Amino acid sequence: MAPNPLSVPCLEKAPEVFDDEYDEPTGPATIAETLEAIRENRPLAEQNLALLRDWIAKHPHIGSCRTDARFLLRFLRSKKHSFLAASQTLERYLAARALHPAWFQRLDIRDPELADLTDVGFLYALKEHDANGCLVALCDWGLIDTKRYTLDHSNRMHALLLEAYGEDTLAQCAGAIIIFDFRHVQLAHHSIVSLSVLRQLARYINNAVPIRCQGIHAVNVPAGAMWILNGLISFLNEKIRSRFSISRDYDELAEKIDRNILPKEYGGKEPKSEHIRAFREQCERYRDRLLAMDEMAIDLDHSEPYSRQAMLDDIEGGAVGSFRKLELD
Prior knowledge:
InterPro entries: CRAL-TRIO_dom, CRAL-TRIO_dom_sf, CRAL/TRIO_N_dom_sf
Number of helices: 16
Protein name: CRAL-TRIO domain-containing protein
Shape: globular
CATH architecture of the largest domain: 3-Layer(aba) Sandwich
Domain CRAL-TRIO: 110-274
Strand content: 5-15%
CATH class of the largest domain: Alpha Beta
CATH superfamily of the largest domain: CRAL-TRIO lipid binding domain
GO molecular function: phosphatidylinositol bisphosphate binding
Structural class: alpha/beta
Organism: Anopheles dirus
Strand order of the largest sheet: 2-3-4-5-6
């Protein structure tokens, strides 16, 4: 039975009534420490939600954007409730969606390409969070068919996962971990990767992704594929680089990740097919919301300093965008 689809939040930048309000996060025994680490408390969260909504309403180039709490808290929590950092990230996120439609448009699990990549086990979220509440995803990168797909398809799959789980309150607070398995990488996979694309991807990750990166783990990496990892990691910021590790195999990875939450094929409890099934159901449940997000818009085609090229430089360089030109009451 297909999961019930969720309703689509309002995309008006200044609605008369907002779709939802702040909910208190709950989770594992470590949730109190997590909330302290991201400086979350209800009064501050509600204050920042109000500020962010006012900022969106007054932004001269944002045409439409979700303003519900579940969406905006992604940015506030990922930036430890710094309003300035959250608004900059939101601005870059909207610009990235406009600049890279091949990554973000029509994130539909029913799309034949995304469905195929899901079915072969290219990328999926694990059914259980880790003990600290982190969302854990596994990418078997060598399973991408290089005769059919490019790095844009890989990026699109990662965008699908991030958006499908973007409203997961626990993941918003605790963060996410991704495991890259390189066991199936062959020489043909090197042909779809370039340092210029890795640089572009890394700078988007550094400056426009509303998620707390708690770990990037590579496993079963052949010597010939090390240049891909070294290239990507060299472009990531120091904080994310410090959370990167390489493991020879899943036995070594088990020293860093609870093996019980992994697929049975890698020493866990449930078979990979069950994790993929749960991932498909999550994507199906959020399908209408993900498709509606294609309607969010930011105008980058004008001659002001805040323009398409300026915003591209902003995303890649991490500079402040148009925020300082805006005023709040």
